[in-house]
From TrEMBL:
Its main location: secreted. Keywords: ATP-binding, Developmental protein, Disulfide bond, DNA damage, DNA recombination, DNA repair, Extracellular matrix, Glycoprotein, Helicase, Hydrolase, Lipoprotein, Nucleotide-binding, Secreted, Wnt signaling pathway. Residues 14-52, 56-114 form the DNA helicase Pif1-like DEAD-box helicase domain. It catalyses: ATP + H2O = ADP + phosphate + H(+). PROSITE patterns: WNT1. InterPro entries: DNA_helicase_pif1-like_DEAD, P-loop_NTPase, Wnt, Wnt_C, Wnt_CS. The keyword Disulfide bond applies. Gene3D superfamilies: 3.30.2460.20. Its EC number is 5.6.2.3. This is Multifunctional fusion protein. It is found in: Secreted, Extracellular space, Extracellular matrix.
Amino acid sequence: MQEGYETLRMKGLKKNIAVAVAFSGIAATLLEGCRTAHSALKLPLNLQTIEEPTLIPRSTAADEIYACLKSSNLWRYVKKLQLTTNMRVALLNDTSAEDFSEQLLTIGNGRVPVDESSGLISFPQNFCNFVSSKDKLINKVFPNIITNYKNNEWLSERAILAAKNKDVDDLNYIIQNEIIRTMHSFKSIDCVTNEDEATNYPIEFLNSLDVPGLPPHNLRLKVGSVVIMLRNINQPKLCNGSREAAFTYAISSAGVSYAVTAACARGNISSCGCAPGPKPRDPAPSGWKWGGCSVDIGFGTRFARKFLDARELEGDERSLMNLHNNRAGRKAVKTNLLTECKCHGVSGSCTMKTCWKTLPPFRQIGDNLMKKYYRARPVASSPASPGPRETDPANKKKRKLQLVLKKGKMPIKKVPKRADLVFLQMSPNYCEKDLAAGSLGTVGRVCNRTSRGTDGCDLMCCGRGYNTHQYTRTWQCRCKFHWCCYVDCDTCSEKTEEYTCK
């Protein structure tokens, strides 16, 4: 898709008529103009993107079958692709996820036994739980939310999905009320772009609109609440080109490369295994030979490059920065591979000696990228150097951009090293409150008084001190089941403290 788009773009630069379109709305957002094929070319073909046939009023079964996509004359020209590998199961090596996937396929393919008397199916006992209220649903999915809402690993394993946004808002409001913190309200500033229409669309009406994909007018949050940024409306400020963004892209790329390579080594992906091709360039220790099964780091890096680099299509300086840091993350995994050797032979003799490459603990790769984070280089975009035969200065604007160091000692602009992290903008002072830069300041940050690490009050509060809050936590304990049929519980409580920055 990228190659085709670049071809059309070059034809447009040559004063030719070229239109870049896509068949889906999501893909069209990646193109200049954001036009779909059926909108730009007025195509009369109306393909259904769902498996069920179109519902026709007062139709027969034959009419519904005829309206199905497979009944179209174009169906025999359509190339069919099938998904054969569950990537979530293959990468995580989770047996419970595999069982859940099989249960979904069993239900979707209609292989679940049907009760002849009622005509209903029965879900497996470990498949789902039935509750009678939203409060019971929250207690089932998020038990003891008061004590566990700070545990990111615990939260990442739980989620509640709903068909309507109203139900989602109600559930979020109930869950936030369980957290013993002060509620903060963030209200939007709504206005019309055309002042002449201000009388037709008053501010109160704009505030009442609940647009899908955008936050509500009155966004209520508590410190510690989990927030997902659905849409990056203000990109230069919310997702800037600072060194923190550089580290985020690098560690994400390294994580994908590491996870896929580890899945290959475990045999969870059928299309890869041991590292193919020539032997490693590094010489083996004295008296040893390469002969073991090295991890296929090449497969992991190729997958990460295709998976993460595909969205960086703009060709601007921010895309170049993201691509560079993605590559640095993949390179960090490759350069930190460990060499393991083993001696084989009878009675401990070394008849055969083999060495192979293996993955290190991911903590080692993260530490390596953290060192690169502190040594990240500031860069700027500049047109690429001219070719040896280029003499026309007007071609300078047509050259592709490249990243160059901002403060190089050499008079000639230097290109940053592939293994270095690069950034475009200086990081904001996260100790000071600056909403324009995305910094909330230190006020209200939760810290750990006894820790000397990154979560300690000294570092989190920037040396400004902290406040101590005391509250009483209550929960049900010492529950007993009485036959028949109720559960009796005592109410336990304890006094605890929480520390927030000034």
